[in-house]
Amino acid sequence: MISPSENPQLRSFLASLTYGAVLSGTVAAIERFGVFVALDDGPAHPVFPGVGFITVPELSWRRLSAASEVVQVGQHVSCQFLQFDDWNMEARLSLRATRPDPFQAFADRTVVGQRLRGRVSMVVPFGVLVRVDQGIEGLVHRRDLTQAPVGELSEIVRVGDDMDVVVTGIDRELRRLGLSLRHGPAGPQ
Predict the structure, then answer these.
(1) Rounded CA separation 34/27 (Å)
(2) H or E, element range at 94
(3) Which of 127, 115, 105 is nearest to 167 (CA)?
(4) For residues 145 and 142, what is the distance between their CA atoms, to the nearest angstrom?
(5) pLDDT 10s digit of each residue in the chain, 189 long?
(6) What is the reported pTM?
């Protein structure tokens, strides 16, 4: 997009950044695909409203429908540097990396076989997502919803339904929580 020869000062600044460095700046613009940040240090971007950019998934540990749920234009933020995007000549940043991961705290206090109460937050073709804690969702695979075959999941469950589930797996690295309505730690009930 921007030739490196067009802005050697910007290229030099971005190339000097190291992974994990914390950079601060002001939210300059919010788009549906992410947030531009005008960094406190370094040159301005010749095209974009800021040299820093945060994709929507890097804004928060929880699922968002809009970036404005987390930040507002004019807000000062501190973010972790992830990488130098040399195509767009911008610093890719993460706001969520500067905050504790609620999934890890949840995993510390939860064990496989534990029963939890949750609310269905989404129905997908292969199962349902159930929110069991603030910002924590797990998947109940369709095979674990009922013993009887079901055509459409909407025949047996809807968004907003409360349900009791059993934890069948916790993957800390991938931040995945497996849940079931039919299985405890010893298998089908």
Answers:
(1) 11
(2) strand 90-94
(3) 115
(4) 5
(5) 555 457 899 999 999 999 999 999 999 999 999 999 999 998 999 999 999 999 999 999 988 889 999 999 999 999 999 999 989 999 999 999 999 999 999 999 999 999 999 999 999 988 999 999 988 999 999 888 877 777 788 778 899 999 999 999 999 999 999 999 865 444 333
(6) 0.74
Return the residue matching tokens 């603030």: 134
**Domain covering 102-188, topology:** OB fold (Dihydrolipoamide Acetyltransferase, E2P) (2.40.50)
Q: What is the CA radius of gyration of the chain?
A: 21
Closest CA to 88 of 60, 59, 56, 50: 50
Sign of CA dihedral 54, 58, 64, 68: negative
User: What CATH number does domain 4-98 carry, 2.60.40.10, 3.30.360.10, 1.10.3720.10, 2.40.50.140?
Assistant: 2.40.50.140
- Smallest CA-to-CA distance from 131 within 143, 146, 116 is with 116
The tokens of 18 are what? Answer: 């190291």
Residue with tokens 């998947």: 139
For residue 93, which amino acid is it?
L
- Nearest one of 82, 93, 89 to 53, comparing CA atoms: 93
For residue 119, the one-letter residue type is: R
Burial 65-89 (b: 16+ CB within 10 A, else e): eebeebbeeeeebebbbbebeeeeb
